[in-house]
Amino acid sequence: MNHSPSLPTDFSAFCQIDSCATVSAHLSEVQALAREKHAYGSYSLPTRFLRHADEQTVIGVRSILKAMAADTQGNSDISNDAVIAATCLAGQPAAARTMIGLRDKGPVAVTPHIVPQCSLHSVASAASVGFGMHGPNFGVGGGIHAVSEGLLLAVTLAPLLAITSPSARIWLICTGWDQQPSLKPNGEVDNDPLCRGLTLLLKHTPSHSIDNARPQIRITSQQDSYSRGHYPADTPLKELYERLENGIRTTVAITNSCVIEITPPELSPKVHNVNETVFRKEAP
User: Fold this and answer.
1) What pTM did the predictor assign?
2) Which of 6, 49, 66, 213 yields a CA-CA distance of 20 to 30 A from 222?
3) Residue 187 lies inside a defined structural domain of this protein
4) Is 261 strand, coil or helix?
């Protein structure tokens, strides 16, 4: 983030979590996943839709389909939904292979697909085009702050989206590697890291309608936060992924005055307070 958000002392915004899904696969498994049929109910992608896609796009799409299956609202219309994809260092393996091919074989070795498939917006674009989501579409992050930036944009966009399109929801997709793929000088991969995808399906909820027994995400000022302890570290996707899978409430501190709190599905708000861990994203 280039600018630290400044919040009034009584600021607070809430989103209900209608669905939460996680997917992971090793690099060696991604090509097979890309060739599989991608469908849930009436939503499906052409068989070859992901044939040129970056690994994080494949994992992100799989997490979207899994979130669709777990959607508490059933077969809701998603045509006006927004998509936010927060990726960490996506496209690097393909970009590196392209540069090696350019060096060894010249321009003929460079595929035109490298630009649309390996950019910051590739995951969000694939979701928007593939599933017919015509609302706002963003690719954010790109680096180690991707999760924090995705969460912040989702919760601050939600109230605005509720005004222009009251029935629309936000699909927040976070993707990243546990360890970056490593390439040999000839472009071959010499490790098999795990790629993770996390999708949160969010719906803006007015503060007077909040049901604290339901999964939710909220942005609030530091003084109104449930938690007072902080760790001076960014939030890695792996950590957030595992905590949400285990139903542990997690607070991501964006700045010294702004925090985002996530109460995931299957978690009672009165549980896990002792074990709550808070991650802090340092302002640059």
Assistant:
1) 0.85
2) 213
3) yes
4) strand
Distance between CA atoms of residues 186 and 51, nearest Å: 22
What six digits make up the tokens of 185?
Answer: 């000088």
- How far apart (Å, rounded) are the C-alpha atoms in residues 280 and 265? 22
User: 7 in a domain, yes or no?
Assistant: no
Q: Name which of 138, 174, 141, 155 is nearest 260 in CA terms.
A: 155
Confidence band, pLDDT 50/70/90 cuts, at residue 256: confident
Count of domains forming the chain: 1
What DSSP element (H or E) covers 25? strand 12-26
Cα 199 from chain centroid? 6
Residue 153 belongs to what H/E stretch?
helix 146-164
Q: Give residue-wise pLDDT tens across range 269-280.
A: 433 333 344 444
Contact 12, 204 (CB under 8 A): no
Paired tokens of 228: 């007072």
Q: Is 98 part of any domain?
A: yes
Are 233 and 279 in contact by the 8 Å Cβ rule? The answer is yes
In angstroms, rounded to a whole number, what is the distance separating the alpha carbons of residues 27 and 242?
A: 19
The answer to the question of residue 5 being in a domain is no
Domain with 76 in it: 12-280
3-state DSSP assignment of residue 239: helix
pLDDT of residue 2: 46
